[in-house]
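Comment thread on ticket #2218

A.B. wrote:
> Attaching the input chain for the structure job we discussed in standup.
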Amino acid sequence: MRRTSWVLTGSAVVLMAASAVTRFTVYPALHQVPADAKSTFRYEGTATLLNAEALQAGDLSKAFLTGVPVTLDRRIEVKDTHGRTAVVADDAVLRGPGGTKLSTSAHLWALDRRDLTERTAPSGSGAEPHEGLVISWPLEPEKRDYRFWDTGTKKAFPAKYEGTQSVDGREAYVYTITSDGPLAETATLKSLPSALPRAAVMGLVSALPEQQRPDEKELADLPKSVPLTYTTATERRGWVDAETGLSLNGSLHQKVLARTQGAEGAVTLFPVSDVDVRGSQASVQHQSDDAETTARLLWLLGTAGPLALLALALLLLALALWLARRRSRAVTDEEETDKEVTSAAL
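C.D. wrote:
> Ran it. Output below, let me know if you need it in another format.
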């Protein structure tokens, strides 16, 4: 009986240790961006773009393509991990009708694997400097404002918490980000001309709706070769799963405008691109399913599993205590019986 009690007590201690290890070691190890994480989220919408074919043909009356259906695929993949730091590739491809590739972007970020904020880039990783969030949200999001990195301007802007909504049956925190400033994204800048002949600029402007054209006096003052600069303005909205931090849905409206310097300040000439997209239903469904699976796993490892192990440990301790008391009573009864027998013999 004594051996049984020791076995039960030892097993209870092991189960308590397993409960602690599951909650404070296994759970934190899994509750971070996995080393093999990769995902693709698709946006769908429309865009207004410069018509390259019409420009090459000199047909400035068709200089702009308006309301073009587009898709934007954003692929996120962890390339390497160093402890709490993950080096993450962030690639995006904008496609038009028939899958025609319209533009691409590629970035590398060094992120904290739990709160997804910036980390010091590992030597030789090639990760770009940034501030705040850039690809997604903390694994445990809060009802507060964050800082979010805008790749177009290479600056951080407030990501403002707006409230809670339901997305495909899951509770989501809603954040909005508004950013604007000089275009600083290297790949996009390299694809745009630094100057255009005055005749080309006038042709592009004439193809715009009248209410969007610059003032005639400003146009009259343009030089023969018009130097160009570019600005970008972006409005983002993210729907973030309240339990897991996974992005359930998102919208993006980004404009790139061509400008020049006039006698009285900057003059906006014409739009280079105007992309307005939102998460596709298939992507939203996929993210919702992933969030449901992840939340269940985290609950098992962080709550249900440790509590079940602890409950079993307490049950074994109670059983060991009961057996010990039962043995103690049996010994006491045996001693009392021996005393009675001895007294009777005397």
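A.B. wrote:
> Thanks. Noting for the ticket: The chain is about 35% helix and 40% strand.
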